[in-house]
Design brief:
The complex is a heterodimer of chains A (311) and B (285).
Chain A: H1 2-18, H2 28-54, E1 57-58, E2 66-67, H3 71-77, H4 80-111, H5 118-130, H6 133-143, H7 150-157, H8 174-199, H9 203-211, H10 216-227, H11 229-244, H12 248-253, H13 265-275, H14 279-310
Antiparallel strand pairs in A: 1-2
Helix pairs in contact in A: 3-14, 4-8, 4-11, 5-8, 6-8, 9-10, 11-14, 13-14
Chain B: H1 2-43, H2 47-53, H3 65-71, H4 76-107, H5 113-125, H6 129-142, H7 148-171, H8 176-184, H9 189-200, H10 202-217, H11 221-226, H12 235-243, H13 250-270, H14 272-281
Classes of the chains: A mainly alpha (311), B mainly alpha (285).
């Protein structure tokens, strides 16, 4: 890496001295960048700012947006559904940074010690990650189905029919049932990241700590875990960002119901925009979602920036 | 004697705890594969059979009827090709364009290099819902709303962020001497990019391609927002619309889900090595 960096740093000066030989002009990098950057600005960065504008308007999606100032935000902060959505996103977030992270790390540690059948176990855990969220939502929707679904069917086979219920139509349970499906998909991803991280842990360090009298737990806690810290930061930030933008599972499994009990910000926004045609209002939800997420995007960018500076 | 038994019991204890860990991992693995196994078993049975006798019974009969129904009446015969029509051009487009951007960012020192790099990285991390309404309006304004183009162009552009990030970091690991030598031999800058840099970047491109294929193929929300016509729907929104139809049995929906998963599973099985490499690409720095 360092080599490439020094090269890139030296070339322009060398070129300037030699009067830019071989047709390499100062415009060359811009020629390579012009199309991708233009597309990215047009479809990603521009729309990002346009959302801020839309959030200040009253727009039904057909006629021209009309500026209304901060009316959408005032309405949003008085809307109980907004607080339900935010609270559910918090439940997603806390679940995502605990269960898959702990399970993924534990599995990676176990699999790193050559457990028989490790290859198959790995494949089984990351296979949910290649399923689309739509498919995960449909499979779990069927599992939770009140009549004939796997969960209730199993309970009644075990003689526990009294426990069976409409899992997704229960206000208190619906969100947790959706999160369970999301966690099922997420664990293998986290495990994969930790397995890659463990490859970089020098076994001799662990052996050295054992010689010094550390038991397995102490070696893990004081040697391996600190070495995995960079992976943990990435895993936690990615999990937070993923949990905040969750939409597909909620939309497929409950559409945010019953009575908005399982809605999340992205779903609330979609319903307002495309079912109720309150697009200006929906844009204000999107802006709040963006502002919350951007805290974590900045943490991530600061980390990337810090590694950049090392070179 | 005592001195001999102590290490033995400790070794036995260690073996015992190891089997405990193994047992836990195997139990968890079994729990994890259950939803998939259950889905496969369901798809071969009839809805009425499961409804009448519960899931944990021997099936009356096993048939491919649900798969057939999903393919014909369920419309997967046109949803699935639509997914490819959207995914493949977007995949090629985003890999090509991001490799251009990555080349410029990795090999040249110029004003704005770092700013442009952070625009790509930051854009890749956005909660994409913030883009939903403006992109909806933009496609409408360009006259491509409710066409394949809306999704192809959007996916191509949005995925540029992540791909440029990964490729740029990878390209910086390639020694500059190789490129410099080609430059001395009179190779044009585009020639250096296409004949030297791209072949050297193939491992990263392969990993990205498998990952991006799955991401674009599995996209749901953009297809939901940018496509209305049933004839154009990819398999994700197509399947979701089956769910709303009361005439559709759950066994058919589950069978349809399995069909919809087949392409990504095939990519995964044959390119597993690249896929795993891809998953860890974005996090390695």
């Amino acid at each position: 890496m360092a080599v490439g960096r020094v090269e890139a740093g030296q070339r322009p000066q060398a070129r300037a001295r030699k009067g830019r030989p071989l047709g390499v002009s100062q415009w060359t990098p811009y020629l390579f960048l012009v199309v991708p950057l233009a597309l990215f600005l047009m479809w990603v960065i521009g729309p990002l700012f346009y959302s801020f504008y839309l959030s200040l308007t009253n727009w039904d999606g057909i006629s021209a947006p009309k500026l209304v100032g901060l009316a959408n935000y005032r309405r949003l902060f008085a809307d109980p559904i907004f607080y339900t959505a935010v609270w559910n996103n918090v439940k997603w977030l806390i679940s995502f940074i605990t269960v898959p992270v702990i399970m993924g790390l534990a599995l990676a540690m176990a699999l790193n010690r050559n457990i028989p059948g490790a290859r198959l176990i790995k494949a089984i855990f990351y296979s949910p990650y290649i399923l689309s969220l739509v498919v995960v939502g449909l499979i779990f929707g069927w599992i939770y189905l009140p009549a004939g679904g796997l969960l209730n069917s199993t309970l009644s086979t075990l003689g526990l029919g009294a426990l069976s219920k409409g899992w997704l139509s229960d206000k208190g349970l619906a969100t947790w049932c959706i999160i369970a499906a999301a966690v099922w998909r997420q664990v293998g991803y986290v495990m994969t990241l930790y397995l890659a991280g463990l490859q970089g842990v020098d076994p001799s360090l662990v052996d050295a700590s054992k010689v010094d009298g550390a038991n397995s737990w102490q070696a893990f806690r004081h040697v391996i875990l600190p070495l995995l810290n960079p992976v943990t930061v990435v895993v936690v930030v990615i999990s937070i960002i993923d949990s905040l933008r969750s939409f597909d599972l909620v939309y497929i499994m409950t559409r945010g119901g019953p009575a908005n009990a399982s809605t999340v910000m992205a779903n609330f926004m979609y319903i307002e925009a495309f079912n109720n045609y309150n697009m200006g209002y929906a844009a204000s939800i999107a802006v709040i979602l963006f502002l919350i997420t951007s805290i974590f995007i900045f943490i991530y960018l600061a980390r990337v920036m810090a590694t950049e500076m090392e070179y | 004697m005592a001195a001999q038994t102590l290490p033995q019991t400790r070794a036995a204890g260690r073996a015992w705890s190891r089997y405990l860990v193994y047992g836990l991992v195997y139990a968890l693995t079994l729990a994890w594969i259950t939803p998939v196994l259950v889905a496969i078993l369901t798809s071969f049975r009839s809805n009425s059979d499961i409804l009448a006798r519960g899931f944990w019974t021997l099936p009356n009969s096993i048939s491919l009827q649900s798969f057939f129904n999903a393919w014909t009446r369920g419309g997967l015969s046109h949803y699935l090709p639509n997914s490819f029509i959207i995914t493949l051009p977007a995949l090629v487009g985003t890999l090509f364009l991001s490799s251009l951007a990555a080349y410029a960012l990795a090999r040249f020192n110029f004003r704005g290099n770092r700013v442009i790099f952070f625009i790509f990285v930051g854009g890749a991390l956005l909660p994409f819902q913030i883009l939903l309404l403006p992109v909806f309006r933009l496609t409408d304004w360009l006259g491509i709303y409710n066409t394949y183009w809306a999704l192809i162009v959007f996916h191509t552009s949005f995925q540029l962020g992540f791909c440029t990030f990964v490729l740029r970091n990878y390209m910086r690991t390639i020694p500059g001497e190789i490129l410099e030598a080609a430059r001395m031999d009179g190779c044009s800058e585009f020639g250096i990019y296409s004949r030297i840099m791209l072949p050297l970047t193939i491992p990263a491109l392969a990993a990205l391609a498998t990952l991006e294929f799955t991401w674009i193929f599995n996209d749901f929300q953009w297809a939901l927002v940018l496509l209305q016509a049933d004839a154009l729907k990819p398999v994700t929104t197509g399947l979701a619309s089956l769910q709303g139809q009361y005439i559709m049995d759950w066994t058919v929906i589950i069978a349809g889900s399995l069909i919809a998963t087949a392409p990504t599973v095939l990519v995964f099985i044959f390119l597993q090595r690249y896929f795993i490499a891809g998953l860890t690409l974005g996090s390695s720095k």
